[in-house]
Amino acid sequence: MTRRDFAWHRMDSEKNLMVINSFLMFEGKLDMQRLVSTIAHRLPNYPRFTQKVVTRMGLPRWIEDTRFDILKHIQRSDLSEQLSPYELQQKLTAMAHEPLESGRPLWHMSVIDQVGTGYAIVFRVHHCITDGLGLIHVLNHLTDDNDSHGESPSMTGHPHSAEMVLQSVCSRLARSLSWLKIAAHVTRLSLLWPDAKTRLKAPLTGEKQLVWLPPLQIDQVRNMAKRMGVTLNDVWVAAVSGALREYLIEQGEQLDGRSLRAAVTFNLREKTNAFQLGNEFGLVALELPTNVDNPRLRLKEANQRMNAIKCSHQPQATMAFLSLAGCLPRSLQNFALNLFTSKGSVVLTNIEGPSHARYLAGSKMTDLICWVPQAGVMGVGFAFISYAGQIQLALFVDTDLVKFPERLMSLTYAAFAELEHATKLSVVEKTEAEVVTNELQISSLDKAASTS
């Protein structure tokens, strides 16, 4: 077990569990026997799902669980009647409070019948097993690209046949300079002032709430990005910034001065290497443009600040910090983690899910939602995951920090609509300016011709 994954393993606390909670919805009638048979055949292709964590001579290790029984990891919830959206939300929130059972592989699936027109699976995986990109690889391996279900999965990207893509080898001097830059970033991050004192930095209670809304169409968000020459992630950052600004103003905060800071996940792994699982990402400390009132300017600021980070070694620095934290005694790891997480108020993650519909045991997956856990003293997490032409927004918060999570989620939704209007208006203004410029040029040419 890598020291970095060991750091994630030890990061659980009473107020923040390091568990990735995913919610998968399917069409059709549940065939439990077929579902369990498919998962039992495919999931163990990743050894981490049949292994447990032990520490020997102070060294963390993955070892095979000789008593592994997949039926202990897949539980069915038989309901007498269909759950309402509120009841479903409360059920998922209650599950998110439950720690995974130690002493065995750190994952669990709850199958809930009578959800919508079909059924759902709540897939909970401890962060020490993998990150978001690795989890998507697992999901692709569990599922098929059509409803012609067979016992064996596709060999495309199969963990037993996939080959690792090696990183290009740098010169010794280049590696030394890179590590110096990483060390400088770790030092700079540790010396940052704590984030702005708002109600989002109140002490955690551990009482959590999961929230989500109907998905957005991915083409709608892509068009916003295209109009302004930015990325999907920039639009996401700008929308969350706008929502946080409006929510905190409604709660009586003043945000026209200092901006809030977010910990934004930054993938550092080749996608083709995701079959290895583990954690290969960094966190960047991003100054959110929450102090910018104009949505268009907010989007430009988000783009400029993200571009500056992409050119730095900050993501590598935080990944190196996590590796170092895994070598420390647990108490020192917790101290260092609290020090770093005091620098931000929220966690933001952006996960690229399957681009086309997937099928599990012959049933079509209609929706995919994922909630990002928070660590240390942070208690607000926003997740953005794409799936089959849709983008699903999800919020996971400590309710003492965000007393009205549904309101914050609806403001995030509204912020996307505001950005869409602003980017369309920008295109109209640009077109009108070009027309005026052309008319002025034609008028100048006409005057020059008449004079001659």
Briefly characterize the structure.
By secondary structure, the chain is an alpha+beta fold.
Please, could you describe this protein's structure?
The protein has 452 residues and is α+β, with helices and mostly antiparallel strands. The chain folds into two domains: 3-142, Chloramphenicol Acetyltransferase; 172-353 and 370-433, Nonribosomal peptide synthetase, condensation domain (Chloramphenicol Acetyltransferase, 2-Layer Sandwich). It has eleven helices and 15 strands. It has helices at residues 3-9, 32-42, 85-96, 132-142, 172-191, 218-228, 232-250, 295-310, 314-325, 330-341, 405-451; strands at residues 19-27, 51-56, 59-64, 74-77, 107-115, 118-126, 208-212, 216-217, 261-267, 281-287, 346-352, 359-360, 363-371, 380-387, 390-398. The protein starts with a helix and ends with a helix. The model has no long low-confidence stretch (mean pLDDT 84). It is an enzyme of class 2 (transferase).
